[in-house]
Write a structure and sequence with these properties.
The protein contains 10 helices and no strands. By secondary structure, the chain is mostly helical. The two termini are 31 Å apart.
Length: 254
């Protein structure tokens, strides 16, 4: 009789499977890789949105934030919702792997996907748009921003997937993605929004994550953007803790 696979090895195998499944879904590739790059190239090459600095300086951190939203909220949320709907999660729950291992594998897969997203976006910005990080950029703060953003949007994705029907998760996650793109400080500074939307936009996780990434990269920090990382980091952290806590409490596996 063979011995059971070590939990960490099983988590790594399941995470690799998550990545392979993501790569096979054309719509996932479109949302997670193509759309953030398209947003960066389109808005950086036009004068539709008036920006004080070079457009790429403001748009690159926003595009990275959009990629994290796509990976955690849209990709993870929708895929998990349909796995739950089809009974896949229930069968995996009976496997000789603790449920925390299933969640860890999904998060690990998302983190690996985000590394690819960041590398692609940085490569496009550097090679095609001549972008360079500011003199005071912080690799450590960049990692912190990626981790907090992943926790916040993966938590939101799992919250939707674990409580709503798959069709409702599909519709709502795409609606939130579009909303974050329009009013989340990704392509448009929030001080350019109508006055009644600015207080709402200022506390959205996408806005705080984009600001935190701009501070980390010392890129595109405008008058309407916080210059201290503390405020944006606390907002993203609050969303991460709240979303993950609600997802853990309310998630239904079948």
């Amino acid at each position: 009789m063979s011995r059971p696979v070590a939990p960490l090895r099983a988590v790594a195998s399941l995470a690799a499977m998550e990545l392979r499944l993501t790569a096979r879904r054309g719509e996932n590739v479109l949302v997670t890789l193509v759309i953030p790059v398209a947003v960066l190239l389109f808005f950086a090459g036009t004068s539709i949105i008036p920006l004080a600095a070079r457009p790429v300086d403001f748009l690159l951190p926003g595009s990275i934030a959009l990629a994290i939203v796509a990976a955690g909220l849209v990709n993870l949320g929708i895929a998990t919702a349909y796995e739950r709907s089809y009974g896949v999660l229930k069968r995996l729950g009976a496997a000789p792997l603790p449920r925390w291992g299933l969640v860890a594998a999904k998060i690990a897969g998302i983190l690996a996907l985000e590394v690819v997203q960041v590398v692609v976006l940085l490569g496009v910005a550097i090679l095609a748009l001549g972008w360079q990080p500011g003199a005071g950029w912080s690799p450590l703060l960049l990692v912190v921003a990626l981790v907090l953003g992943t926790a916040a949007f993966a938590g939101l994705g799992l919250l939707l997937a674990g409580t709503l029907r798959a069709e409702a998760t599909l519709a709502l996650s795409n609606a939130l993605f579009l909303g974050f793109l329009m009013v989340g400080g990704i392509v448009l500074p929030i001080d350019h929004l109508p006055g009644f939307l600015q207080p709402i936009a200022s506390v959205l996780p996408a806005t705080a994550l984009a600001d935190l990434l701009r501070i980390a990269l010392a890129s595109g920090v405008s008058a309407g953007t916080a210059t201290s990382a503390t405020g944006p980091a606390l907002i993203v952290l609050a969303w991460a803790v709240g979303a993950c806590a609600l997802a853990i409490r309310s998630f239904r596996w079948d």
